[in-house]
Protein 1
Amino acid sequence: MPSPRCKLLTASGLTRVDQRLIVGASAALLVARLRSLLPFRILARQLRWYPRTA
């Protein structure tokens, strides 16, 4: 059985890598969502500003 210190180091190392992966993945998903929603926001804004031209 490994020592508690060794376990702690392994766990902290894994969580650091997992945190980096999670942060990177969530940031990529957020950017993709914002990019996909951007045209809809512009369209909604145009429809709001010019409701009778459409």
Note: The chain has one domain: 1-54.
Protein 2
Amino acid sequence: MYADDGICQETLLWSVVAVCAAKMKLLRRKKRRALWCKQWLSRRHLKGSFNQIFMELQVENPRPRKLLTKIEPYICKQDTSFRDSISPGARLMVEIGEPSALERSVTGCPVALTGHASLSCNLKIEPTQQHAVHTASQNGCTNTDYCTVDCSGCKDVWTRLPDPSNCKQYYLCNRDQLFTRQPFKCAFGHVFDAENKTCVLGHFCMAPCDRIERCHFLCYPDSHHYLIADRVDCTTYHVCNGISTQPVGTRKCSVSKPYFNGAFCQEDLTKCCNCQPYCSARDLGSAVLNPLDCRKFYECWVVGLPFFVSSCTPGNHFNASTGTCNAETTCQITCPNKASARVILVDGNCGDKVTVDPCAVPSDGSKECADCTGFDQVPNPVDCNSYYLCSAAAFFMPDPFPCPDGDIFDEDELVCKPDGKCTPACNQPDGRDCFYSCEGNPAGMIADPFDCSVYHECTVTDPGPAETCPSDKPYFDGKKCGVDESACCHCRPYCYNGDAGLKVEDPTDCRKYFVCTADNEVPSVQSECKDNEHFDQHARECSSTAPCVTLCRNVVDKDGCIDPYTCQEAGYFPVCKSKCLQDYYHCREVSDDYAQTETCSDDLVFNPDTLQCTKNETCPYHKSLPH
């Protein structure tokens, strides 16, 4: 029995040794294979690292690592014993982000010769893309414009460039050559980060090129483009109503942000819509000139704004007539950049200071430039941060020029300077003295959005404690307390930081909204929803399912009138508090709905004081009967 026990123990011992030896051999084998799998992965069914990686992608991971994958026939690694048996189309290049020093000290994971962690470390993998490419650091790439697809100067084997028109796609550069004209898509639920050149988790994004799909020149029914550009004048834009093919209004950009880029007014001249290249139907398959650089041209593959830019060889310029580059062509820049457009402002020698009429809206400059014989700068009566340029006795340009950031146009020296002396001739119209954010008025005061008697003083970008106007001057107009209720700053539409190009609600009427052309200002471009629709303040669009939310009820406008009117008690109420009109509001019950107007009979008018229809002659206010 003891002999049998000894034999059993010896057999068991040899079995353990055999198992351990096999395990050690397997571990050594796995270690060698791990390094190979770092470089190339075979596409095997239910086996191999390819399957292992995509199994890991399906597991929720709180600390992901980067994985960039793409089946790619391009060969750039040195040969291995496994490589010949795998077809190029089944090879998979991967990159796993290098672990931090802390992670290496904790896990003891080795780092492969390539500088990246080995697969044997069991690092989790971030589900960022379905495709994989080699490191795309974009070293050496000379193109920094997200509005073009240009591989010039790229030295890496693979470089990712954002798709200008789609924030969930990207293009591949093979060194300095575009690999394919078809973009690659990020995985579902991911967007392309143009700065880091990788897909990241996310759903909402904007196209990397802020000019794409912005420059429209025609109104289309049921279109979301409510603002269209002017083909000639970059400081002018037109308003569409989403119904008609014709604009319903024309607007000018403000003096501080004078250039319209297709969505809102801003300061960069080069983003004007008339500075954008454009491919018409007849240009397809050919090329058009880059309006900012005569040494470059755009290839036209679609109608609209082109994306693919190419450069002429050194010493050549692009000929827009022939569509080719040659040395004989004279450089033609159809849209000068901001610096060259302002170089003429350096010299000016008008002798006398020019004065302008208070609050006058300059037209041709005949009054403002009357005493000038050459180029001279004169004050803007409504804005201390800009000025007009005179050429002889007329404006050189119809629009004012902005001073550099932080400068004020000095009314005595007639130059922009940080400590310039300026006393504006009048306040800006249309509520432009009203601010709700200190970021738009850091040295002034801001109004309370809903209470006309409350205001705050700004300390840089932070509002101070609430202050209340005195009872004898209860209404704050943006600068001071007064007695004019129609000058109140409360309940105005307002464009905060980041609202430029977006829609904001009309706080007094749920059926209307405003389009922001700049940040930190009271917008002036108003539009109205279709019948039976209300403006959705969260989606920032009109909707037939959105409830009517009126933030401010029965607000007196600058004309002293109330429209719309909400019945907060039963009775008769005037449309205007200081006018005798034939129309009035009749509230039969308290309601959140907007009241309809009724009309006095015959030639009678509604007296706001007595709340009755009376003869026009007895009305104490301005007679407003139609002629």
Note: The two ends are 130 Å apart (CA to CA).
Protein 3
Amino acid sequence: MKNKKLFLPIVIMLLLLTLTGGAYAYWASSINGANTNTSNNLNIGQAGVVTTQVTVNGTANTQTLVPVGREVSGETVSKITTSFQMNWTGSGAEGVAGTISYEIVSVTNSENQTLENLFTLKNLSSSELVVGTPKTVTLDIEFTDEPSTAAEYAKIAGKQITLTIKFTVTP
């Protein structure tokens, strides 16, 4: 009888620990922190691809963001420069250099409407990244093309714009 009293609480504790550990392992495996990274810190692992989002609020240094060719000195700008802290990780590959490439995956507004062909990425400050050596790189986001219709203009006027950018490092 004494063994049953001791055995049952131990079994219950082991069951709770197993369930809790299993739930945590499942939860942790479903998280992909590099996909949406508001701090612009990108940790590129062995796969070599990271997607991040940059939010444009319509102003840069208190100046309004407008298409190229529509700038007014001191009042509006056609590009913003954003920086990313990158770190390429991998065991046993320290010191290997790779080339950074980038592309826009999608552009959406605050109402989750897709915006097409309005922005381009230019002037990556460095195209090389070395395994195990963190580096800050800058990238210009340029408002290249004006909306072609009033409906397209309504999608961006006064709205927050989010660009999803994919960075890839190849050895």
Note: Residues 22-39 have pLDDT under 50 and may be disordered.
Protein 4
Amino acid sequence: MGDTLRVTSRILALLLVMLIITCAFPTSYAQSIPDILMVPELRPGSAYSISSAEGLRRLAELVNSGMNMKDIYFVLDADIVLNPGSFDEGGVWSEAGEPALWTPIGNTFHEFSGRFDGAGHSISGMYCSAGSGFVGLFGRIIDGSVENLTIKNSYIKGAYYIGGIAGYALSLDTSCGISNCNVEITVDCVSQSSAGAVVGCVVVGGGLFSVERCASVSNLPAVGMSVGEVFLGENSETILAPTPGEDTSLSWLWITLILIGCLASLSVLLIKNYRERKSVAALPGAAEADAAGTAATGTFTAAMTAQLQPEPPETTGEIAEEPAGSDRSDPAKGPDEYALPGGEAPETGAKTVLSARETARPRTQGYYYIKQTPDGYMFNLKAANHEILATSQVYQLLPACKKAIMSLAKNVSAAVIDDLTEPAEDKVYAPKFEIYTDNAGQYRFRIKAANYEIIATSQGYATKSGCRSAIDSVVRNAETKKLILEDEETAKRREKLRAEIVRAEKITVEDANSLIDDLTAEVLLETLDSEEGHIKRQNCVDVWLDTIGEHFDSGDIVNTAALIRKGLVPPNTRHIRVLGRGMLDKALTVEANQFSLDAVKMIVLTGGNTVRTND
């Protein structure tokens, strides 16, 4: 009995010594799991550590190549510096040379769906500049989580869906979110929408999505910009459920609720316990922001139910008249005669087929430009910055060209992406964006209706990602109601006049009137829906051009919505008239219901465009 007690005591003493040694020399959890750079492949249900910028880039490469990260856990094992030095609010780097460009984890076509634990570490010096969207440390998250992470001394720029932690986050059927994160960042959003210091856009589908215990310091408006936009389902119900003893006001949260009808299940969005502050001059550290920022706490919950499957398209996209030169342009044939034989249902069996609208995207103000040629009529779909996104074939009659525009808008809403440059199992019998390579090796796409009719084609792109970004732009712009119709003679005359005009860095109203006559100014004025004629609006709000120049930057698009956002016209304004006055020193695209001719001259002389609307 005594020997047994002595053995037991020795064992307990040994265990105690081992416990003391373990406590004295702790090993972090991250150090006990394999590094992402040391394993040939990642497996679901496993955990991997990231301890360097190379490891972080490896994660981005894997996600952006299409690897599913569901049920995979990543933990940061060290502070990571992507770029040393600092960035000012214009993105200028304090060091010599060019900063290393960060490629977000997740993009338009691939998402991060795993769990990322910063373990209290930081990522600093992130520099990301993109011409499109999904910009941030993570570009796109679906049913994924990020926690315990600090982003600091960073600069990000993009067109939409921009956030320090994530540009875009969507919950479908899993509870997920962003928690315990601090962000110190400069955000440059070209479109001024869907931008937040923590997350640019949250789409609430099924389950719970939460943004909790986060702090932000940024150049965005002083409050309400940790989360940029929230997309909820149609017929949503918003319920305020305050935490006992806390402020129940939602005035601190500037969230745009955009109703869409493509989300599912009972969903809850929870945003609570975060601090945010606008930076002044140099941005302080995230820890300082947490101590100095204005506390804004509360609980915001949104519960909604919506239909998961989108409604079937209203049309298969038949065009009333075939393009000139087609062997099927018999006007006697009806749309049904071009349908699939035997009434076959659309199939999407190809491996490379993706939904062209699998994520919610903000609409932009593009327009259709119809141009008369010697052979007939054709149209271009243009973005708001006048970039050509898609070009139609030539139609013999103007009504057929307009019906093709309607067909394009309706087909895009149901189109899939069919990549012909990759192997596929079956043909796709559905409206689609068909990606292919031309003889020069450039990537192009053509928009096809379900009956194989080519509605429009794109220009060439050097990379497939550029081609896919253009498809994304078509989706955002195709449903626009704006239309510019221009006959061949007027187009040639306008082009000649613009070529002859000598651009000036700045112009006064007096000089503008002495340089351009009124007749020329009328020709230079582009008109939307010009076939209906210009409608004079009553009670237009007058806006002076020198005032516009003071509040907008070169290259901006000035319209009623933009003027309302800047507080230059009343919130209920629908029609505006732009009048010339003073001096203009930048190139602007101005859209208005009416223009004075001297305003047209000033805008054109500084390299801008004037577009007269009839909406």
Note: Residues 197 and 236 are 26 Å apart (CA to CA).
